Structure formats: C-alpha cells, structure tokens
Amino acid sequence: MKKILEIKNLSVEYFLENRNILALQNVNIDLFENEVIGIIGESASGKSTLGHAIISLLDKSAKITNGQILFENENLLNKKEKELQKIRGKKISIIFQDPFSSLNPTMKIGKQILEAIDINPSKEKVFALLKDVGIQDEKLRYSQYPHQISGGMRQRVMIAIAIACRPKIIIADEPTTSLDTTYQLQIIDLLKDINKKYKSSIIFISHNIALVSNIAKKLYIMNSGKIIEEAFAEDILEKAKHPFTKLLLNSLIKIDKNEKTKKLKK
Predict the structure, then answer these.
(1) Alpha-carbon distance 250 to 254, whole Å?
(2) Average pLDDT of the residues in 165-181
(3) What are the backbone angles phi and psi of residue 191, rounded to the nearest 5°?
C-alpha cells in the first residue's frame, strides 16, 4: 500500500496565561491509502489537537514547534492558507464531535451539503450523498433544519458533508461521543461502508478503545501528548504492553454486533 500521510516528530504547544503547555511531543504516525487507524486517549491526551493540526485548524493559542505533516509527500506546514483551502474539506475532511454545533441551525440540511460539493453541485448529488449515509426520505430531509432531525441523523449529515468531495483522508474526531450505543455502532458500520466505497483513509479519534477496535486496523495510544503504544488492533486487545493501555482495556466494556456485552480480555 502507498503511504498517504506521514507525521514526523510533531510537537504542539499552547500559550495560555503566560505559560506554555506542551500538547503534543514528537508524535509520529503513518497512514496508508484506504487504511483506517485509531487514535485513542483520554481527555487532554492531545488526540484532537493532533487531528486539528493535520488540517491547520488549531486554536490561535497553539503553535507547532517541531515536526512535519507530509500529505502526498508535501509538507502541509509549509503551505499558505490559500493552498490549504484547496486541501481542507476537499482532499482531507473532518467530522466533528458535536454535529449540532457544527451545522448551521439557520440553514436547511440540503443547502449545507450542497455548499460542500466542489464540482457541479446539484440536488441530485445531495440526494445521492444522503442515501450513501443511510438517510431515508432524502427529499424531505433536504428541506429540513438540523433541529428537526435526531442526533444520529445529524451526525450522518456531517458525514455526508465530509465525503461530498470524495476526500483521500477523513478525520473522524470523536464522532460517536454524543450518541447512544445503538447509534455508535451504526456510525461505525457507516464509516466502514464509506471506507470501502469511497476508498478514503480514515483517522478515527476516540477515548473508546473497544469501539474503535471494530473499525481500525491499527491503534495509536496517546497519553500526555505522546504516542505510548502502537500496534495492530487485535494485538493491543490481546497483549497490550504499556501499563496505561492495560488500564484502558480493563476499564472498558466491549460491545459486539448483537449488542451483548462482555469484558475485554486482559
């Protein structure tokens, strides 16, 4: 497989209240074409900072102090904003955690998806995208506002926006956190279908190692801004090496396809 994204020794600092907070410390990650990887960590571990750094959406208080982000062998950190605009949303897209705050509450769903299509936008293309993300009655949904549909459906709309330009990489930044268990598994299955149909590589960011193991081939475990363990998902689930990873596994419950639960194997 061809490597599509390579993050080398990436470090990010936040400058807050006259002090520096190191959010990422020499992070290294590889992503290949059509691959799904998981970035796992607790709150404030740096996982979302990593996702936002890839597409230059960091807060103004943040600064990249070291490293490279190579997309198709070009360092994104050397590109100007106009160049990034041609990549962001088109070649690399992001699905945010809270669709309700990410969607425009005053704009109809169909129009928001329409604006995300860069080549020959049309209602027919929006209808096709809605079908691809599992939304029925697409003509009705096209004319509705975000508050008129469920949280799970709003997240599907966000996914439709993210795939509108058939990006090479999708960053899923905790896309299931605000959803119940049933919807979480549905979103996982949907992203699997997207990965298969659109051939988009996916970076799935989450605190839930059990959930992400259902979709990601490889897992990167983060703690205090560092990658502390990386391996194939099945290897980490069966024989995690780092003590922090073992704590994550012992504190979670694995949800299988039949919605039964069982303790993760130690």
Answers:
(1) 10
(2) 92
(3) -65, -30
